[in-house]
Amino acid sequence: MAHYININVRRAQTHPFHIVDPSPWPLMTSLAAMFMLFGFTLYLHFYQNGLLMFTIGLITLVGTMAIWWRDVIREATFEGHHTTYVRKGLKLGMILFIASEIFLFVAFFWAFFHASLNPTIEIGCVWPPKGIIAINPWHVPLLNTLVLVTSGAYITWAHYSLLAGDREQTIEALASTIGLAIFFTFLQYYEYSVAPFNISDSIYGSVFYMLTGLHGSHVIIGTLFLIVCLYRLTKHHFTKTHHVGFECGAWYWHFVDIVWIFVYFFVYWWGFPNA
User: CATH homologous superfamily for 97-275?
Assistant: First the structure.
């Protein structure tokens, strides 16, 4: 009886917005993030259970986010709550999120230029600092750039195929994008494993690993985003007119592409001697 009354109330709704039901996931996400932060801080200060606390927070965060987004997918696909106004709001929220991410990278690029444009005497008044062997931009970094730019072309192909109603081509192009993203991550891992310096090697190592590592973490997140989109495509969740989740994933991936071009040009090429 209670369920029947709830359905009638929703049908009587006189506005186009989605009033979400009470959910425990925002609180759970906050607590998990707090556990991760405290655990990582304790681990850096060599406390015994710091790594365990970080791991518990990470597992809780990933699990909570998966369940939370499952609920959002249900609301959009099966319950019909994502009206035109709601979809506009979701797109605006994604734009603002990407804008905040841009400023996050701006902060690290600021640190890079602050150190590289006016090298201090402690690092020999040169960039890269004395004793640092920079990574050749024409080897793995160039291949990574080609891989990521190609993946951007594939995600665009997938988007246009979806708009044209060609589901098979959309799946093919999106799967190719995911494959290239995984290949990029593998190449980045290989580059780290053979790099002649580490994060503690002066300001150069710090800004290099922070910028490339931050970008790499975004690539991994974007890859997971696209994998979910691919799964939803196979389940017929997207149509030509209703595919906000896919569209946001494509925007995010283009953002990752563009950031990498800046990373490659300034950190690898411009910062390489005799480039």
Answer: Cytochrome c oxidase, subunit III, four-helix bundle (1.20.120.80)
pLDDT digits (tens, 9 = 90+) for 45-86: 988 888 999 999 999 999 998 998 898 888 888 888 888 888
CA distance 94 to 92: 5
φ/ψ region of 45 (left if φ > 0, alpha if ψ in -120 to 50, else beta) reads alpha
The model carries a pTM of 0.87
Closest CA to 197 of 137, 120, 265, 129: 129
First and final CA of the chain: distance in angstroms?
73
**Is 1-81 a CATH 1.10.10.60 domain?**
no
Q: Where are the alpha helices (DSSP H) in the chain?
A: 2-11, 25-44, 50-77, 84-116, 140-163, 167-194, 202-234, 244-262
